[in-house]
Amino acid sequence: MRWTRPLAALALTPVVTSLLAVAPAAAAPAPADSAPETLGRYVAFGDSFVSGPGITPKRAGDCERSTRNFPSLVAAAVPVSGFTDASCGGARIGDLWAAQRDNPPQLDALTPDTGLVTFGTLGGNDVGLVGRAAGCLASDCTGTPDDEYHQSIDATLPRLVEGIQETKRRAPDAVIAVIGYGTYLPPGGCPDNPALSAFSPAEADYIQGLIDHLSDVLEQAAEAEEVLFVDMREIPGSLDHTVCAAPDQQWIRALDTYGDGAPLHPSAAGHEAMAGQVLEVLAYAPTEPPVAIGPVRVGATCAAGDLRVRVRAGDAPVTKVVFRLGNHRLGVDRRAPWVLERRAAGLAGHRGRLTAQVTLRSDEQSLTLRRAVPRPACLR
């Protein structure tokens, strides 16, 4: 992961109270007699999960951009010299280079004085994510961890990396933060919600597994290019604000949007939560890693009906490892040798990828890495 120039010293201007409440780790205000450092121009890339369709007021143009989407809130909260929201509903990764309706290629928004770029979310439209989710409402859609949709998600990685590399070339001094997708469906879905009861628990886990896989690939692209990654799945309380929540508590809208957002997309409150997560990551962006971090590897094996997952991190100061199978938390390990063992019986029914979230800490600084590993035979 790349550790960029510090943002923690930047003064964050007041935004709405709810946004500041979501971002308690945002930097403290600078002294009154000092002017805050300016980041330069801020450019936001992304698809409809960024642009905010259905949230008023909207900006002019055909891209369904809201003035209350998370890039607009971030732009209001950090001292930037200018802001261009280049996101566009329906955008694919290729639209970084190609015009989309009345939107120029998103990369064309970059200039040498660009100091901040939020890269994504991107990739969902390349793999037909929303269409796949909508199809689940009409027919059975449960898949496997290596089906064509998961394969198409893996195939987005080289293009995402290429997009980050081109961003670096055009804006060499910019802090780049790759944005992941969030938690839209809780484990097992919401079978008690009549509007979403067509999603079986297995289907809900499968769709969220696809979303998680997209986020994992975006994180891999960020790590490959050593830039920041904003994991929206780590927003505190996000499981209480999915499509299953009460309408006034939804950060992700279900089918009824209540005039605020689009189906299966973030609401205005969801964008506030996303902005808070971006601000939390940007407030901690030191120029050097807190520790020398070698390769962090994860392996999974099966023996005598047992699943065994092991993290190898060399001398890196690992403080915690969270093991997950899709949305299902398998366990938390807080001491070496960072090994999880579970009976495989019953786990094969859990959809999604097998991952280990590794937290490293030194001198009050921390870094979290997420590593995915192929499902071993006993989970297939």
From TrEMBL:
MF terms in GO: hydrolase activity
Pfam families on file: Lipase_GDSL_2
Location of the SGNH hydrolase-type esterase domain: 44-273
Keywords (A to Z) from UniProt: Hydrolase, Signal
InterPro entries reported in the protein's UniProt record: SEST-like, SGNH_hydro, SGNH_hydro_sf
First and last residue of the signal peptide: 1-27
Top-level division of the source organism's lineage: Bacteria
EC number: 3.1.-.-
Protein name: SGNH/GDSL hydrolase family protein
